[in-house]
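Attaching the record inline, Q. Sequence:
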Amino acid sequence: MLKILKSRFRWDRNEFSGAFGDIGADLPLLISVANVANLNGTNLLVMFGGMQILSGLLYPFPMPVQPLKAMATIVISQKLTAATLHGAGLAIGIIMLLLTFTGSLEWLAKKIPKSVVRGIQFGLGLKLASVALGDFVQTDGITGYGLAAIAFIIAVILIGNRRLPAALPIIAMGVGYAVFFQVDTTELVNQFGVQLPSWHVPTLTDIQTGFIVLTLPQIPLSLGNSVLATRQLVQDYFPHQSVTIRKIGFTYAVMNLINPWFGGMPTCHGSGGIAGHFVFGARTGGSVIIYGILLLGMGLFFGSGFDLLAKVFPLPILGVLLLFKAVALVALIRDTAHLQKDFSIIIIVGLLGASLPYGFALGLLVGVILHYFDYKIPLGVLSNLLPTRN
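Structure, as predicted:
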């Protein structure tokens, strides 16, 4: 087993750097949901880390696990309970399993054009950039701007550097700042203790309520980003690797058939996660396993001090990591920018996804309709959108 792991995965500094590529998106969302729904920190971190390790073992390239964003957003905005969230997770696991084994996912993959998938990735990049610049970087005032500026300069200089991957000095700077100025290390040490996740049984009522309130709004985003855009990004970054829609759908389903029974957050794959790991150096599933071990350890030994532990990663620095992931996603449209019809659809889908509630579901629908109606923005309209010189 050890020989297989060594031959299939790398465990070097680049994989370790890439392991932090998605933490800027994951950690704030997990903290927010845990606070609103009163989730157990041990259950949340152990299961989230465990799913990362499972995904890292199943895929030979970086295929990280992410919280289901539509579900998380609704839980936060409507202050829903943990029981409803876990019921929704089980419901979407069952639905995704059915879609996978009936061949429906593969049928959808053939019918939804690449321009719509690129539009979803473009919109996700815009949304992540907005969160990074509008929420994270501004968190700590002048100090936060200073931290973000230093992290940004480091990232610009070191992005693509295989000897000194960018995320390593950025994370080291963030941890050092937190230890000296933000975290009460005595209180954190007092939270140390081995804890295991507890068993949780979703009721039929939880599943029914979760399905209506959380699962239905999540399905379009999952189809667009978690499955189709993820498969497309694997083809972009790792053309020599073969990954099927069926496998992505199956692992998505399995994770959500396991998570609810141990109080875990419903999870998915996502193109943003792959982009984050890749842009900061990862090339194998080793980065995902490293990330999973980190989260698993946090949950097992510091689960009761989750809020304190989260402060080890200052938000302005996480914002910079998030921004570079966003740029990587937006840059993917370059392969279709020369095609007028496709580019028009990408812009429309992306703007809908980034700016409206449930915008990715609407963008997915609108983009498919525009594609099959052979729509393209007239060149005159495009020129009118551009600034002119007097």
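The chain has a mean pLDDT of 88. The two ends are 69 Å apart (CA to CA).

More tomorrow.
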